[in-house]
């Protein structure tokens, strides 16, 4: 009888009971999530102070652990899965993704080699092929999953370095390499350059136009100036959906410059790349087919629980040259016939992340994904129209996708106070950015559970808190 069996260190009956309870709890949590304040009201150190300093000498019951989860941990949780979490990028761990994550934990495979889990390796290739097709990238792009866009971009720049200076692998990064990205790019580009020995000083920040997009002519001038100065330009990172305003760098003219000067073109589509699934937003990735690599994060806008970053490259052989290292204990008889994912990156061990994206893409299907993304973009534009119609407010940037940058027509300090008041309400969580020296509020739409009435509620909240500001 299975009841008397032990499953993974726990009596089967106890596992079943706790498992059912947990799923029930998750179902209630997600059904009633609007009842929770999006942001917890705790002070730094408060949660840790409620926990014992040392781990227990003897094991505790699942009941006790779950009770503490509810009473101690939950009060300090920021509810990222809340439909009115509109800060940074509004993300979602959708139901099929949540279920797949538990399966992945149960299987606990390590897909470092094809042999160590053929299904994980092959599903990763297949599911990334589906996503590649949905966003309109050509077949020649090889896909691999990393944890985050920061790590994907680091791998892109490492491949770019391998292409430009193959001696780096043996001798270390040579002096003189320079790379380019816009002033609005995510600082993961800078971090990658620091980590890879390129040097922060050698990341050139290309100026942007009035819509916060990289100016290709400025890029060309900077590359030419560097060549005259004896430098070795090797890489350019364009962004499809920048972190602050979701501006989209013009990839086609950037690709022209990259091709002319032999630069590796990486496109950071961590957030914006997903929009290309929507037929009328395909243009977000215009020119991406000419890039050497691109990153798209399903954990940002494709309903995938953190973490999941899809990295594609047209030059997998360069990536492989940068990272493969033979170790006797990892050799298998299938090596010549199979992809071993450990050869394409820093990490050896890898989670079965493909499972969750497979569940999600199958459960929703392309048409429903398109409908949801379309409604997110539509609601963001509607919100923007309300901002424009209220003389107390103004838009601070164009709205290409599902993020609205707006401000109260007042001082930076007033806008900061407005943001704090909105977030203190617990009803919604917005974040900010600074554009041209002005403090700006950001309203990101992207959660799978968000409804139009959530967006209306946020706008009413903004208006009400602004009225208090004026009084
Ligand atoms: N690129 C862009 C455009 C982003 O907005 C972000 C984060 O918001 C990143 C990269 C980094 O993403 P991750 O947290 O997956 O490293």
Brief synopsis:
42% of the residues lie in helices and 14% in strands. It has 15 helices and 14 strands.
Helix and strand topology:
Blueprint lengths: L5 E2 L2 E2 H20 L14 H4 L12 H12 L11 E2 L8 H13 L10 H18 L6 E5 L2 H16 L3 H4 L5 E6 L5 H8 L7 E4 L9 H13 L3 E8 L11 H11 L2 E6 L23 E4 L1 H4 L7 E5 L2 H8 L30 H36 L3 E3 L7 E6 L3 H13 L4 E7 L2 E7 L7 H19 L1
Parallel strand pairs: 3-13, 5-6, 5-7, 7-8, 8-9
Antiparallel strand pairs: 1-2, 4-10, 9-10, 11-12, 12-14, 13-14
Helix pairs in contact: 4-13, 5-13, 6-8, 6-12, 9-10, 13-15, 14-15
The chain binds pyridoxal-5'-phosphate.
Would you mind describing this structure in some detail?
It is a single chain. With 471 residues, the protein is of the alpha/beta class. The protein has a domain of 242 residues: Type I PLP-dependent aspartate aminotransferase-like (Major domain) (Aspartate Aminotransferase, domain 2, 3-Layer(aba) Sandwich). It is built from 15 helices and 14 strands. It has a seven-stranded mixed beta sheet with strand order 4-10-9-8-7-5-6, with helices on both faces. β13 and β14 form a beta hairpin. α5 packs parallel to α13 and α13 crosses α15. It starts with 5 loop residues before the first strand and ends with a helix. It binds pyridoxal-5'-phosphate. Pyridoxal-5'-phosphate (PLP) binds next to α6.
């Amino acid at each position: 009888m299975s009841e008397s069996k032990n499953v993974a260190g726990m009596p089967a009956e106890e596992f079943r009971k706790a498992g059912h309870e947990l799923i029930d709890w998750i179902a209630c949590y997600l059904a009633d999530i609007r009842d929770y304040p999006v942001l917890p009201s705790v002070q730094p150190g408060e949660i840790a102070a409620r926990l014992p300093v040392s781990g227990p000498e003897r094991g505790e019951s699942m009941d006790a652990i779950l009770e503490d989860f509810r009473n101690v941990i939950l009060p300090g949780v920021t509810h990222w899965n809340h439909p009115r979490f509109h800060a940074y990028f509004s993300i979602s761990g959708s139901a099929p993704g949540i279920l797949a994550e538990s399966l992945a934990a149960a299987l606990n495979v390590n897909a470092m080699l094809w042999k160590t889990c053929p299904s994980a390796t092959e599903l990763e290739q297949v599911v990334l092929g589906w996503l590649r097709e949905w966003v309109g990238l050509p077949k020649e792009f090889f896909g691999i999953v990393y944890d985050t866009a920061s790590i994907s971009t680091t791998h892109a720049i490492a491949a770019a370095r391998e292409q430009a200076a193959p001696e780096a692998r043996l001798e270390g990064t040579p002096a003189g390499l320079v790379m380019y990205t816009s002033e609005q790019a995510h600082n993961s580009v800078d971090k990658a350059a620091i980590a890879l020995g390129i040097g922060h000083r050698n990341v050139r920040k290309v100026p942007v136009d009035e819509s916060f997009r990289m100016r290709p002519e400025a890029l060309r001038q900077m590359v030419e100036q560097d060549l005259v100065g004896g430098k070795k330009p090797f890489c350019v990172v364009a962004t499809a959906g920048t972190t602050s305003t979701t501006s989209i760098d013009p990839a086609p003219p950037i690709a022209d410059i990259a091709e002319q000067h032999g630069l590796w073109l990486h496109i950071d589509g961590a957030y914006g790349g997903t929009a290309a699934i929507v037929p009328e937003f395909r243009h977000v990735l215009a020119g991406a087919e000419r890039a050497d690599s691109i990153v798209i994060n399903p954990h940002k806008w494709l309903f995938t629980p953190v973490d999941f970053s899809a990295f594609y490259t047209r030059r997998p052989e360069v990536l492989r040259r940068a990272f493969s290292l033979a170790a006797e204990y990892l050799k298998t008889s299938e090596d010549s016939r199979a992809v071993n994912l450990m050869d394409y990156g820093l990490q050896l061990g890898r989670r079965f992340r493909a499972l969750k994206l497979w569940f999600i893409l199958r459960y929703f299907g392309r048409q429903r994904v398109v409908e949801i993304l379309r409604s997110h973009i539509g609601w963001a534009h509607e919100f923007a129209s309300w901002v424009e119609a209220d003389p107390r407010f103004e838009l601070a940037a164009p709205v290409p996708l599902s993020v609205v940058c707006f401000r109260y027509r007042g001082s930076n300090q007033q806008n900061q106070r407005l943001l704090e008041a909105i977030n203190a309400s617990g009803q919604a969580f917005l974040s900010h950015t600074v554009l041209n020296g002005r403090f700006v509020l950001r309203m990101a739409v992207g959660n799978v559970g968000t409804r139009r009435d959530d967006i209306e509620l946020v706008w009413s909240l903004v208006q009400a808190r602004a009225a208090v500001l004026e009084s």
